[in-house]
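Lab notebook: predicted structure, single chain.

Context: the supervisor wants predicted structures on file for every construct in the current expression panel, including those that have not yet been purified. This is the next one on the list. No modifications to the sequence; it matches the entry in the shared construct table.
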Amino acid sequence: MSGKKPTMMQVKNVIDNMLRHVAMITDRLEKLDGLLDMYIDFKGDKDLFKGYVTKTITTKIKERENANKEKSGELRKGSETNRSTGNNKQAANKRQEKNVKSNKSTKKSTPIKDSGESGSIGL
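Prediction complete. Output recorded below exactly as produced.
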C-alpha cells in the first residue's frame, strides 16, 4: 500500500479499534478504582488515607504553581536578552523557513495500517 491513501473503510476500522481500546482501558481503570476503594475499606484507615491524599495533592499543586511562576519569570528574562540578539534570530528564522519549504516538497504521506491485532493485559 505504499503511496496510496487509506480508504474510508480502513480509516473507520482503525478508529473503531482505537475506540474499543479506550473503552477497555476505561473499564479497567474503573475496576482498579473500585478495588482500591475496597482495599482502603478493608484496611480500616480510610480517614487517614483521605488526609494523606489531600495533603499530598495540595503540596503537589503548590509545587507546580511555584514552578510555573519561576518558569514564567525565566521566560520574561529570556525575552529581554533575546531582544539584543534579534539579528541572529532573524537570520535563524529565515534559515528555518527555507528548510521547512524544502521539506514540504519532499515529504511523502504514510498510509494508516490496521494490523487487526488487539493486545490485552489480563487482570
